[in-house]
Amino acid sequence: MKSTNYTRFCRRLFANFFEKFNLSETSKNRLLEKADISIMYQEYYSMILMNILIGFISSFISLLILYLIVPHPVLALIMLIVSCIVPVGIGFYYIYLPASKAKSRGKKIDRFLPYATNFINTMSVAGVSPSEIFEALSNVELYGEIQKEAKKITTEINMMGVDSITAMQNAIKISPSNKFKEFIQGILATIQSGSELGPYFERCVDKYMAKDLIDRKRNLESLAIMAEAFVVTVIAFPLFLAIIISIMGLTAEGGISLEFLYMIALIILPMAYFGFYVLMSSGMGETV
Predict the structure, then answer these.
(1) Res 263: pLDDT
(2) pLDDT per residue over 66-101, tens digit each?
(3) Over the stretch 120-158, which tens digit does the pLDDT of each residue have?
(4) CA distance 153 to 163
(5) Terminal CA-CA length for the chain
(6) Distance CA 268, CA 109 (A)
(7) Which of the 8 DSSP states describes residue 265?
(8) Could you read off the pLDDT of 208-220 as tens digits, one per residue?
(9) What DSSP element (H or E) covers 114?
(10) Residues 117, 205: contact at Cβ < 8 Å?
(11) Most-buried pick from 120, 160, 202, 245 (CB within 10 A)?
(12) Are 75 and 67 in contact (CB under 8 A)?
């Protein structure tokens, strides 16, 4: 998410509000940087206030028009409830979005860190300086979010004239990954102590690769458990239940209503499939 004409308009509109309550906080700006949201704190929260107002007005007016067409007490109650739920939902979504994105970015950085350290170690063996290593790393899309962290370091060094040590210290402050922070902190400690970076990088590669192997084995075990649960709950159990209900329908007097089977097929099973999809897409099996 980046600054747009809309977000800048929102900031100008609510500028007096933030100045009055003195809501400018460095920690909030840093959280947005961790989430890779290139917007200042005041601008982002001004956008939230504007979206809340737009959500309330649009939902209220649309339901009011529907109520004028079909006047009914139940519709009036729905209009009141929806007009409250929509702005509250918008507010919660945008308020918790930075923390959620920062956490997601941290996981992605941790996932690719073993391979990025291997890349860094290879370049270090060739005698490349840390600033040149991060510049090369910033051009490799293979490492995902680590590339963005390297770009931030490289931008400060090349465009802002900051030395490499200060740039890495700033990277520690805005990185969402604790592992990446420890890795950069280790580089700084090694440089400041006058030691060689080669042995440090080799130790990091061995440590991260070993941990990555353990995590992947644990991940496979978790996925195996989820696969077994999926087969039992949404494949085998419904089949056995359908057979049992069909037999009972043949033997019982008056038969058994098919409404229960329709409810399973059209409501319960789709919800179960969707539940497993959410679990898989949310990375439940990932241990990083």
Answers:
(1) 79
(2) 888 878 787 788 888 888 899 999 999 998 999 889
(3) 998 888 888 888 999 999 888 888 889 999 999 999 888
(4) 10
(5) 25
(6) 37
(7) I
(8) 999 888 888 888 8
(9) helix 73-125
(10) yes
(11) 120
(12) yes
Give the per-residue pLDDT at 196.
86
What number is the average pLDDT over the span 249-275? 74
Whether 127 contacts 103, CB under 8 Å: no
What's the gap between Cα 45 and its chain centre? 19
Query: Can you tell me the distance from the alpha carbon of 277 to that of 100, in angstroms, rounded to the nearest whole number?
Result: 19
Q: Write out the two tokens for 268.
A: 């319960």
Give me the phi and psi of 38, to 5 degrees please. -85, 60
- How far CA 280 is from CA of 223, 275, 287, in Å, comes to 9, 9, 13
Placement of tokens 């994105």 in the chain: 101
Tokens 């359908």 locate to 242
The residue to which tokens 């239940």 are assigned = 241
Extract the tokens encoding 93.
């979504």
State the Rg of the chain over Cα. 27
Rounded to whole angstroms, the Cα distance separating 233 from 249 reads 23
Helices then strands, each counted (H, E), the chain:
13, 0
